[in-house]
């Protein structure tokens, strides 16, 4: 049986956290339609509540898929494959999204591609037309979101090496927790950045965890505790605006310094990196972007930050990762395993993804 070759669009679903998303991409990776719905109910509860998120995915998905199909002008039977993020993430949402996509794949008798969420973030920068010149392997990915914080060497499709990650909080989580201490809403990153603009980044001395230490790991919980100690003498309610702004600016500067240091270390570990790519919601932060751009400049490589809507969770990245996976198998002459039996995985380390031509693959149903 020949390798599976994608000749028709792929319909992809993302539901690993609080974004319910669907996208339809042409076999070349052109976005034909996409819908992203960020669930609103979590903000009032101060964070994503997994059970509420899963139920919301369940009620939202049918309409979101229908709307996306309608916008593309295509029908289900015109799809060549179906894909969904099957991990890592919140298990309830993963079950809902992947089973929905599997159901469509079975009904249409098409393959189902199980996509790793981190892999999808990692490959987004290669989406056709996103940057002027194609991004070549290997490159360094810095994924900084509310749930993830890691440096990944992207050697090829399906071939990833985690160079370092957080040993406690993710960067976005640290922003959210510090914002909460300052009495700002959730998610805290954007509000904290806004407040920081009024403050003096050098006014308050805070620790810079792991800076200068070998490796590329991150740690933010000590920084959060140090911020809490600065607020303590006043109490949150009585914190003068200028002090709050100075704390926000100083905290943001610490995160910048830590990230820049870790990215420098990661580039030392991957001297052949062709570019520095950033992804995740924290990539929205202008000061952090500027700091990382500086690191890339020092290394004489381009800094690539996909547009924010593709940095945060979306289904385009899931569809694109599926296309890249299908192509990589086709090029290697290796059967692509049909993901129909792949169980959703709340934890799915990048090292568990086998590149095309790596391990023996089961035959796809097509
Ligand atoms: O990638 P994302 O939308 O969702 C996941 O976590 O998967 O990232 C959301 C995170 C939140 O923690 C939010 O506070 C943070 O990204 N964030 C920011 C900014 N905008 C969003 N952090 C710092 N500065 C920002 N401007
Ligand atoms: Zn994500």
Describe, in plain words, how this protein is organized in 3D.
The chain has 2 domains: 10-126 and 310-365, Nucleotidyltransferase, domain 5, CATH 3.30.420.40; 139-305, 2-Layer Sandwich (Nucleotidyltransferase, domain 5), CATH 3.30.420.40. Helix content is 39%, strand content 16%. It has 10 helices and 10 strands. Strand 7 and strand 8 form a beta hairpin. Helix 6 (221-231) runs antiparallel to helix 7. The longest helix is centred in the last third of the chain and has 29 residues, at 241-269. The protein is globular and about 65 Å long. The protein binds 5'-O-[(R)-(carboxyoxy)(hydroxy)phosphoryl]adenosine and zinc ion. Zinc ion binds next to helix 3.
Helical residue percent band: 25-40%
Number of discrete helical segments? 10
Named once each, the bound ligands are:
5'-O-[(R)-(carboxyoxy)(hydroxy)phosphoryl]adenosine, zinc ion
The radius of gyration is: 21 Å
Shape: globular
Largest sheet, strands/sense/barrel? 5 strands, mixed
CATH architecture call of the largest domain: 2-Layer Sandwich
Mean pLDDT: 93
Can you tell me the CATH class of the largest domain?
Alpha Beta
Low-confidence stretches: 359-366
CATH topology of the largest domain: Nucleotidyltransferase, domain 5
* Order of strands, widest sheet: 3-2-1-4-5
What is the SS-derived class?
Answer: alpha/beta
**Strand portion:** 15-25%
